[in-house]
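Quick start: read one record
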Amino acid sequence: MSLFSLFARPVVLGWVLSMGVVRHYVAAVAAHCNYFASRRTSYKHIQAVIELLRSMDTGRPLIRLGGAGDGGYLIPDDLQGIRACFSPGVAAQATFEKELQHRGISSYLADYSVLGPPPDCASMSFEKKFLGAYDSDIFTTLASWVGRHPETAEGDLLLQMDVEGAEYEIIANIDPVLLRRFRILVIEFHDFECLAQPFGYRRIFEALTKLSHDFVPVHLHPNNYAGIAHIGPLRVPRMLEISYLRRDRCSTLTPRQNFPHPEDRDNVPNKPSAPLPRQWFS
């Protein structure tokens, strides 16, 4: 009996089709649980990403701006002389930007998904655009956005970016010369569980490598909304808030061990805490 005639039998064909459905279902469930059928990134390569994010004491203490919950960040106490903050991604409140305003630092907001800034931030500059890798009616590049504000042409800047996963494409397309105008970066990185996949790993590794040329991570804080993923023996925050300081502003580079920081707060109070796994700092 030929193989074709065997698989042409209704009973055998039904079994084959049902197995395909089963495999599809199993694959869908596995993907939901962060397991993928594609080739997995080696633990050595994931460890290389962790090494890029070893947080350093730069000789400047950390201060908390933005309140006790989501939207508050720890940054180095090095704000004097910063001209402005560019803050893509606008939430219902802008406590971080409000505290900067109290310190004499203007903020520029942008988000296509909302109609305008929060009511108590009406005096801040707002553009109804997403920050992206090209210019259009919906998107703006960082270069174009900054260029539309000549009043910020002199002095250092601060970038606070929470753009729901678009950060990798944005970082890849920022000119390094423009990037170095920013003294402090505060970026929420998403989808770190995708380090398990080669494509996700490359996207994350390339962005962090680019930042490492001119910036030093000074604080890491997992967003407890998404929790911690397990990639084999490694525990990986799915969403990670990272504060950077430009290298020329660092007087020392000593690995930090005090995690969580006394000023750290959960983003979502009614969800379990997600402290930074020890593998990321010990």
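The chain has two domains: 1-33, 40-280.
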